[in-house]
Amino acid sequence: xxxxxxxxxxxxxxxxxxxxxxxxxxxxxxxxxxxxxxxxxxxxxxxxxxxxxxxxxxxxxxxxxxxxxxxxxxxxxxxxxxxxxxxxxxxxxxxxxxxxxxxxxxxxxxxxxxxxxxxxxxxxxxxxxxxxxxxxxxxxxxxxxxxxxxxxxxxxxxxxxxxxxxxxxxxxxxxxxxxxxxxxxxxxxxxxxxxxxxxxxxxxxxxxxxxxxxxxxxxxxxxxxxxxxxxxxxxxxxxxxxxxxxxxxxxxxxxxxxxxxxxxxxxxxxxxxxxxxxxxxxxxxxxxxxxxxxxxxxxxxxxxxxxxxxxxx
Length: 313
Fold this sequence. Notes:
The chain is mainly α. It has helices at residues 2-29, 33-37, 44-53, 60-72, 86-121, 126-140, 143-157, 170-199, 202-209, 214-251, 257-266, 270-298, and strands at 305-306, 311-312. The protein has twelve helices and two strands; from the N terminus they run H-H-H-H-H-H-H-H-H-H-H-H-E-E. Strands 1-2 form a two-stranded antiparallel ribbon. Helix 11 (257-266) packs antiparallel against helix 12. The longest helix has 38 residues, at 214-251. The N and C termini lie close together (10 Å).
């Protein structure tokens, strides 16, 4: 198990390193960062001063090493918007994105998981077809279109919910629904598939043959075993939540990392852009690493360790 976790941790570190390197390369491929961040009217002496200040006058290899050292310390330079550390701008917006993403995930679990299990228990029946139709409709609607529909209905037509801002929990409702419903649709389909696969296992048939109550078969045997692939699915979906938050936060003016990224790209605030990208990558990699750890705790065989035997399997 220790070897399994060590390999996963090494893979996570290499992924983060690859992201940091990709950001560095992308900035250089896009042109001289000084030309991107400074206007064309900037005097040559001022341009030279900033190139020296940002270390752009040094060899490329030295720039890369300095960039890595700064990234490890969380130093991505100063934001052009308010002349404060770029990473500070990210950490200020990050709690809002975590709140929105967590709310959307809880909503998706509350809707998608029961819907998928119900569809599996009523396989090829009317309830199964209806549940899957709802699930397909949920994730087929584009996020931006769903957000606009919710604003038109609940903010403009009914006037019962605010359409923008983050002053209260009421402002969180529409962004959560917009981000959570497509995730609930994907989760429902995946939960159905995972549950159907478990229901066909021999130990489920054996439990039914022993006269175990149907509800007990589902709760004690089917759902715990179906939870393993569902955990992996949720780990992957964290990336979709972070990607979708950029659109949702922009639509509802929610002050999170996604909106910060969009605003920084539009204003060419490259220091904040690279800080956001690296931070989001670390969150995604960390979430998947955590899922791997939980996964191996649930099923130790994945780490090459058999708890029953007490020795490598």
